[in-house]
Specification:
The chain is mainly α. The protein has helices spanning 4-10, 17-32, 38-66, 78-81, 86-111, 116-128, 142-163, 168-191, 193-199, 204-208, 210-232, 245-256, 263-293. It has 13 helices and no strands.
């Protein structure tokens, strides 16, 4: 039987910045518009975190029953290691999706029932990433869906439920957050290229190959910082979001210098730290922009 710490590890805490970051930035945009609504921000965070943890457990379950995790380099998986029964992990994933759905319904009831549609799509995307007969994560579309749901949908959705509209800032910064979420996934999949090839899992990293995947990772980070500049032209305080470039130096060097296997686990953690710092500093910049206008 898996211990509590093993369940916690299987929830993959290093990926959680991808859930927190878009809610922070979307809330920052709403605050800049003087439409910050604390309880809606909290509900949006519950939705995002529950989806992220749910997709992590769903991946654990689906990859485990397919045998994809038999030669895994990265963090422990419950099903692949035999520490938990597949049905237990599946129930954990579904419970997380149920929490996300309930919080999402509360937001839809107070902000617009049409939000049920993107919410339902997000839950379906989380499950079918590695679940179902034709998982899109096995066909190279993982980064695309992460960009859409943990970038565009999450940032703009968080802004919309609080401010009632989407802005240039939320759209542009959602691209930046989406690219960082993609970089997080790329770092993960770059580490697993060889094992994924053996198991037939055709991630984007597998399709692009090792060398090109490393360059794409760097381009994703660069694109995220360009989004900060695009918004910072109008709101200079947002340029605080460029400071995490300093955090990006070490992982970029590691990736471009050919880091492999366990060394890429550190890159994954550093990428999560970059995304979180980026979100915090951009959000502070948006708040300072509003305060300066008072």
């Amino acid at each position: 039987m898996a211990s509590l710490s093993e369940w916690l590890s299987a929830s993959r805490p290093r990926t959680l910045p991808a859930a927190v970051a878009p809610v922070l930035v979307g809330t920052g945009v709403a605050a800049a518009l003087v439409h910050f609504v604390a309880w809606k921000a909290v509900l949006a965070l519950v939705v995002s975190l529950a989806l992220q943890i749910g997709v992590n457990f769903a991946n654990d379950y689906s990859d485990g029953i397919r045998g994809t995790d038999e030669h895994r380099i990265g963090p422990m998986r419950l099903v692949g290691s035999g520490l938990a029964q597949p049905a237990q992990v599946k129930r954990a994933a579904l419970a997380c999706f149920a929490v996300a759905a309930l919080a999402g319904l509360a937001l839809a009831a107070t902000s617009g029932w049409w939000l049920v549609i993107p919410g339902a799509l997000a839950v379906l995307a989380a499950w079918f990433y590695t679940g179902g007969p034709r998982p899109y994560g096995y066909a190279g579309f993982g980064e695309l869906f992460v960009f859409v749901f943990f970038g565009l949908f999450a940032v703009n959705g968080t802004t919309y439920v609080q401010a009632g509209r989407i802005t240039y800032g939320s759209l542009t910064l959602s691209i930046g957050i989406g690219l960082l979420a993609c970089a997080l996934l790329m770092a993960n999949n770059l580490r697993d290229i060889e094992s994924d090839k053996k198991s037939g899992k055709r991630t984007l990293a597998v399709l692009l190959g090792d060398s090109l995947s490393r360059r794409v990772y760097v381009l994703m980070l660069a694109g995220a910082f360009l989004a900060v500049i695009a918004v910072g032209i109008r709101r200079p305080w947002v340029l605080l979001g460029l400071l995490p470039i300093l955090l990006a130096i070490a992982p970029v060097k590691a990736v471009l210098h050919g880091a492999r296997g366990p060394k890429l686990i550190a890159v994954l953690g550093a990428t999560g730290a970059i995304e979180f710092a980026y979100a915090v500093l951009v959000t502070l910049g948006l708040v300072f922009t509003r305060l300066a206008a008072l």
